[in-house]
């Protein structure tokens, strides 16, 4: 039983949705449950290898899970750092079903970590290139398509708790996610008169390939074993558990629905109460 009947038949492009355990796949499936037609995006495996992104090719399995729900699904690949590829991604998404109602800017990288004084500028640029430049480019072309069609739309970007607070060894990631909130707030003002809302979601501690890697790597770098890490998390998070992909996917479905039609420019925490500003 769908929670948001108005989403039935809408077309959603979800970036970075080619990993079975990822937030993108969970969001795509949640929107499909509401009857959205879904365009799954990810970087092509060869480009991922060139960029050093440890990516398996699981997009076909995600697509099968979406179509099992009885909705149409298309796939597209693009390196979000490359403007022509992002323009092509949006053109293909619009072409797939003749319209684009929802963009979920989910793709991101967070595996290049290090102290500010040690971080190679290439790592800084790589993180900014996907997390901020890529989100900007997707918003630029998807927003233009929504405005041109004149039927409004929804843009939701998956930021992070790192968009609200600094995290040691994660300066590039945190800066990119803080930047994503600035982009969200500015675009919300520009797109408001076109009926396009622009919001962000700030999750934390979600078990995905990236999330697991970050937790294990940062704990090791800080000399904290995983038992201590989880104990500290339970002490810090009022709701006492890590985030689940479903928590973010549910928030995203709500923000995409008519029930969120008066909400724009927000950066919604989905953090079990750990982050509250
Ligand atoms: N997992 C967490 O704990 C957590 C917490 C807060 C925010 N986030 C954010 O959620 C989003 C999804 O993360 P996830 O944990 O599901 O990780 P993930 O690694 O499963 O998903 C990220 C996706 O982005 C894609 N991507 C990377 N570089 C790309 C490029 N150049 N062009 C196009 N796509 C590219 C990857 O291929 C991957 O499919 C990210 O933006 C991440 O920063 C995750």
Describe the structure.
By secondary structure, the chain is α/β, with parallel strands linked by helices. The protein has one domain: 3-Layer(aba) Sandwich (Rossmann fold), CATH 3.40.50. Helix content is 46%, strand content 13%. Strands 3-2-1-4-5-6-7 form a seven-stranded parallel beta sheet, sandwiched between helices. Helix 1 links the parallel strand 1 and strand 2. Helix 1 runs parallel beside helix 3, helix 1 crosses helix 9 and helix 4 runs parallel beside helix 5. The longest helix has 29 residues. The radius of gyration is 18 Å and the shape is globular. The protein starts with 10 loop residues before the first strand and ends in a 7-residue tail after the last strand. The model has no long low-confidence stretch (mean pLDDT 94). The protein binds nicotinamide-adenine-dinucleotide (NAD). The site of nicotinamide-adenine-dinucleotide (NAD) has 32 residues, from helix 1, helix 5 and helix 7.
Q: Which descriptors would you attach to this protein?
A:
globular; alpha/beta; 7 strands; seven-stranded parallel β-sheet; 277 residues; Rossmann fold; binds nicotinamide-adenine-dinucleotide
Set down the secondary structure blueprint.
Blueprint: E1 11-14, H1 23-33, E2 37-42, H2 45-50, H3 59-67, E3 73-77, H4 83-97, E4 102-105, H5 121-149, E5 153-158, H6 171-191, E6 196-203, H7 209-221, H8 226-236, H9 245-256, E7 267-270
Helix pairs in contact: 1-3, 1-9, 4-5, 5-6
The structure holds nicotinamide-adenine-dinucleotide.
């Amino acid at each position: 039983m769908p929670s948001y009947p108005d989403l039935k038949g809408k077309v959603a492009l979800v970036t970075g949705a080619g990993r079975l355990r990822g937030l993108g796949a969970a969001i795509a499936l949640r929107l499909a449950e509401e009857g959205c037609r879904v365009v799954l995006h990810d970087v092509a495996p060869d480009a991922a290898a060139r960029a050093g992104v440890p990516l398996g090719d699981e997009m076909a399995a995600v697509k099968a899970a979406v179509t099992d729900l009885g909705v149409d699904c298309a796939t597209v690949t693009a390196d979000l750092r490359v403007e022509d590829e992002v323009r092509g991604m949006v053109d293909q998404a619009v072409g797939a079903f003749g319209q684009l109602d929802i963009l979920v800017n989910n793709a991101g990288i967070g595996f290049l970590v290090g102290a500010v004084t040690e971080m190679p500028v290439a790592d800084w640029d790589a993180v900014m290139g996907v997390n901020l430049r890529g989100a900007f480019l997707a918003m630029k072309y998807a927003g233009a398509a929504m405005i041109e069609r004149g039927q409004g739309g929804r843009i939701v970007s998956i930021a992070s708790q790192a968009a609200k607070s600094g995290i040691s060894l994660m300066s590039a990631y945190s800066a990119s996610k803080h930047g994503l909130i600035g982009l969200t707030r500015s675009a919300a003002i520009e797109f408001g008169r076109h009926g396009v809302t622009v919001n962000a979601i700030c999750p934390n501690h979600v078990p995905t390939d990236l999330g697991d890697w970050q937790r294990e790597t940062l704990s090791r770098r800080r000399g904290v074993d995983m038992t201590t890490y989880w104990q500290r998390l339970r002490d810090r998070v009022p709701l006492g558990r890590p985030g689940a992909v479903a928590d973010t996917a549910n928030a995203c479905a709500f923000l995409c629905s008519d029930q969120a039609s008066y909400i724009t420019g927000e950066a919604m925490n989905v953090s079990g109460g750990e982050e509250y500003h």
